[in-house]
Amino acid sequence: MALALPALLIGVGASLLLLGVSTVAEALQKAVWDRLPHALGIGGEPAWWTFLILTLAGAAVGLTVAKVPGRAGHDPATEGLVAPPIPARVVPSLLLATVLTLAGGVSLGPENPITAVNVALAFALGTRFLPAAPGEAWVGIAAAGTIGALFGTPVAAALILSETAMGGPGTPLWDRLFAPLIAAGAGALTTVALAAPTLSVDVPGYRGFELVDLVSGSVIALVACTLGLLLVYAFPHVHSVFHRLPGPVVGLAAGGAVLGVLGAVGGRITLFKGLDEMKTLTGHASSHSAGGLLLIIVVKLAAILVAASCGFRGGRIFPAVFTGLAIGLLANRLVDAVPVSLAIGSGVLGLLVALTRQGWLSLFMAVAVVTDIKLLPLLCVVTLPAWLLATGRPEMLIKEG
């Protein structure tokens, strides 16, 4: 009862902060990528403009990390979605770096930095005004409120937090999740009421189970998981290369330049966090050849790897979902007998298992993207071979020290 009202307020606040940052980033994105080229008389989408903007975005984030008080928090390569609280004084610089990352076209989403900001604020306020509550309670409540706001449902928060160690070992799971679920529900309702977000794409519904679907879904998930593991194994080496450069300004500008080259090769569809782009890709899938889809997949995977390695502030979930969707579309193009909803769900599932190592999150996102509950039992089984491939492998994290 003591945590119920604070949890409600934290959930609403988490959503409002997410929507505020997203609104500012989208306004800046439109100004830089649409209005400014038009004002300068630049027609089309020239490759040099993509390269220039991403390089400048890298330099701007690098200056934020190097010069702004708080230094935009810890190296994002060292932390997962829910991390220990950062000092509240770091929040302004982290928000600035996040806005610049999102607006600059970098292949990262807002989930990690927004969660870190909400956890920092909730922890600072909660431990001051309600010190009797354990500090970990504020972390769980703020993380749940942010996850609910991000995905528009408290179910995602409950699934993700069920995989973390919260509360005493003898406390029932529902009791441990009670306050976080209030925050997640409040965050989700606020986001839905103000922005009506949707993760789903418009694809034909699943025709119904056939035995061959177990094979095709498992193969697609395993291929996606294998591609994700290639990123995982390359991650420490690419991270080391960028962090050998002299300072964050040079490192992030170099990362932005590489992303600019990738964006010029893959086109605008391979830029940004991927939430809007996956709807565009699905709606125009017929206009892309198998080779074109393969190019998008390769470019986006490389962009995720570079963006996560060089220090841009952002999360990998949304761009990974876009890439998993592209893998599914390619599988359906190569073997059109595979239902497109199954192919997309399996692609998203396999890639997220490799990159996040969170089974519930991967399963939830796979179903949420295709919005067909008939696929849930099948995807539960398809998860198993991908999980067996990924489990015991290194995670996409850099261990400090």
TrEMBL record:
<feature type="transmembrane region" description="Helical">
    <location>
        <begin position="211"/>
        <end position="235"/>
    </location>
</feature>
<dbReference type="InterPro" id="IPR050368">
    <property type="entry name" value="ClC-type_chloride_channel"/>
</dbReference>
<dbReference type="GO" id="GO:0005886">
    <property type="term" value="C:plasma membrane"/>
</dbReference>
<protein>
    <submittedName>
        <fullName>Ion channel protein</fullName>
    </submittedName>
</protein>
<dbReference type="GO" id="GO:0015108">
    <property type="term" value="F:chloride transmembrane transporter activity"/>
</dbReference>
<dbReference type="InterPro" id="IPR001807">
    <property type="entry name" value="ClC"/>
</dbReference>
<dbReference type="Pfam" id="PF00654">
    <property type="entry name" value="Voltage_CLC"/>
</dbReference>
<feature type="transmembrane region" description="Helical">
    <location>
        <begin position="47"/>
        <end position="66"/>
    </location>
</feature>
<feature type="transmembrane region" description="Helical">
    <location>
        <begin position="361"/>
        <end position="389"/>
    </location>
</feature>
<feature type="transmembrane region" description="Helical">
    <location>
        <begin position="181"/>
        <end position="199"/>
    </location>
</feature>
<feature type="transmembrane region" description="Helical">
    <location>
        <begin position="247"/>
        <end position="269"/>
    </location>
</feature>
<feature type="transmembrane region" description="Helical">
    <location>
        <begin position="290"/>
        <end position="308"/>
    </location>
</feature>
<keyword id="KW-0812">Transmembrane</keyword>
<feature type="transmembrane region" description="Helical">
    <location>
        <begin position="137"/>
        <end position="161"/>
    </location>
</feature>
<keyword id="KW-0472">Membrane</keyword>
<keyword id="KW-1133">Transmembrane helix</keyword>
<feature type="transmembrane region" description="Helical">
    <location>
        <begin position="86"/>
        <end position="108"/>
    </location>
</feature>
<dbReference type="InterPro" id="IPR014743">
    <property type="entry name" value="Cl-channel_core"/>
</dbReference>
<feature type="transmembrane region" description="Helical">
    <location>
        <begin position="338"/>
        <end position="355"/>
    </location>
</feature>
